[in-house]
């Protein structure tokens, strides 16, 4: 074991965003896919086009143990990697074969090899924030369904919007947000997260203590459980606060009526922000600009509160969190319940559950097994998010 560990240390590699690009003085517009609250980009490797998630919460390119092109990558060593909820692990690092993104060919790109945090997801890899750390300005516009990359310093300077300075931590961007009162915290701008916003529980506690007046109706409830999932497992079980924020401020712009929950991991501002405006990253000035599609200084969100969340235990789907004021709780779901069947069809794994494809508005009959071994059946309808 000592010899094995010594060998691993000898192969440790450092983070690098130094890869070669086929063009200079360029501005490239790349078609993107905006599906189910996520941004996907086409990446060509060899003669085949693959589907990659665009994830600003990932410090670099990611491939998976089941990625079809993994055999074309070359081993580079090992690296200590951090996931979205603060857990760490030592992972393999590979050098990617040449990748074509739009009209740009990237050569020598470094990638970590990860196992899938949520099995059943239908994409082949991740394009991370290393493309910005490399020095390229980037604009994500899901209304126009395009990603713009450029190495020109002033390319986006004539555009209007609301700028904030971002800070790099583990090579990903953190921006200042104000969830209530005058309390400001840092949140990872994370297009890999579907949630609009989630706030770290310790940060929430500090902010709540700072308020001269109680948050009142902005607190919709408290429960015990977990909902956030990183590359290396679910977050620890703990108190979760359900919030209805009157406004969430990003610089001088406000998002109003934002429903969210606390998390044991870091605070995140997720991909749902892209539904309200385009986002531009300027790596030279370390600035992020939010450009609202409809102008103005505020927009209404009115998203639905998280009512239920499932996590994996021993490879099976388990209720990790359920809101006591939500419909699933009223129908009988409880934290710790394992899903063993849906509409009398056995559920054999979390991957099968994630790929079930629940239709909005349709009723499903869940057979649940409580931690004490008792089984019961409850109904659930997936409601559309307004």
Keywords:
globular; nine-stranded mixed sheet; eleven-stranded mixed sheet; single chain; 5 helices; 386 residues; mainly beta
Task: Describe the protein.
The N terminus is likely disordered. The chain is 9% helix and 48% strand. Strands 1, 3, 4, 5, 6, 7, 8, 9, 10, 11 and 12 form an eleven-stranded mixed beta sheet that branches. Strands 16, 17, 18, 19, 20, 23, 24, 25 and 28 form a nine-stranded mixed beta sheet that branches. By secondary structure, it is mainly β.
Topology:
Blueprint: H1 2-10, E1 20-21, E2 27-31, E3 33-35, E4 38-45, E5 48-54, E6 61-64, E7 74-82, E8 88-95, E9 99-101, E10 104-107, E11 110-114, E12 125-127, H2 130-133, E13 137-141, E14 146-150, E15 162-165, E16 167-169, E17 172-180, E18 183-190, E19 197-200, H3 201-210, E20 219-225, E21 229-230, E22 233-234, E23 238-250, E24 253-263, E25 268-270, E26 277-282, E27 287-292, E28 298-300, E29 308-313, E30 316-322, H4 327-331, E31 338-342, E32 345-346, H5 350-354, E33 363-369, E34 375-381
Distance between the termini: 54 Å
The biggest beta sheet, please?
Answer: 11 strands, mixed
Average pLDDT figure: 87
Query: How much beta, percentage-wise?
Result: over 45%
> Helix/strand/pairing class, anyone?
mainly beta
Based on DSSP secondary structure assignment, what is the total number of beta strands?
34
* C-alpha geometry: globular
Put simply, the count of helices is: 5
Q: How much is the radius of gyration in Å?
A: 22 Å
Uncertain residue ranges: 1-10
Share of helical residues: under 10%
């Amino acid at each position: 074991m000592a010899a094995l560990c010594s060998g691993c240390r000898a192969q440790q590699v450092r983070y690098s965003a130094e890869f070669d690009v086929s063009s200079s003085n360029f501005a490239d517009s790349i078609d993107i896919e905006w599906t189910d609250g996520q941004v996907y980009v086409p990446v060509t490797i060899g003669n085949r086009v693959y589907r990659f998630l665009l994830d600003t919460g990932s410090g670099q390119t990611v491939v998976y143990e089941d990625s079809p092109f993994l055999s074309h990558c070359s081993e580079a060593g090992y690296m200590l990697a951090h996931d979205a909820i603060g857990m760490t692990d030592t992972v393999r690092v590979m050098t990617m074969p040449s990748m074509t993104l739009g009209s740009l060919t990237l050569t020598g790109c470094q990638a970590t090899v990860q196992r899938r945090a949520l099995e059943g997801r239908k994409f082949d890899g991740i394009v991370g924030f290393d493309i910005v750390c490399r020095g390229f300005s980037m604009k994500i516009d899901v209304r126009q369904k395009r990603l713009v990359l450029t190495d020109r310093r002033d390319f986006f300077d004539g555009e209007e919007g609301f700028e904030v300075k971002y800070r790099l931590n583990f090579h990903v961007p953190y921006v200042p947000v104000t969830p209530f009162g005058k309390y400001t915290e840092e949140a990872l701008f994370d297009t890999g997260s579907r949630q609009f916003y989630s706030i770290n529980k310790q940060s929430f506690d500090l902010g709540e203590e700072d308020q001269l007046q109680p948050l009142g109706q902005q607190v919709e409830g408290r429960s015990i459980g977990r909902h956030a999932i990183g590359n290396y497992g679910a977050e620890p079980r703990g108190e979760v606060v359900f919030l209805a924020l009157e406004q969430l401020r990003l610089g001088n712009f406000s998002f109003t009526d934002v429903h969210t929950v606390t998390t044991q991991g870091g605070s995140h501002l997720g991909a749902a922000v892209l539904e309200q405006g385009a986002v531009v990253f300027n790596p030279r000035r370390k600035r992020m600009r939010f450009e609202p599609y409809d102008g103005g200084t505020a927009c209404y969100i009115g998203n639905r509160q998280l009512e239920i969340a499932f996590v994996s235990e021993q490879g099976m789907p388990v209720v990790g969190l359920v809101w006591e004021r939500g419909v699933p709780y009223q129908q009988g779901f409880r934290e710790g319940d394992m899903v063993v069947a849906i509409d009398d069809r056995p559920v054999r794994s979390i991957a099968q559950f994630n790929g079930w494809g629940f239709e909005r508005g349709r009723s499903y009959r869940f057979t649940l097994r409580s931690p004490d071994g008792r089984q019961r059946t409850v109904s659930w309808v997936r409601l559309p998010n307004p």
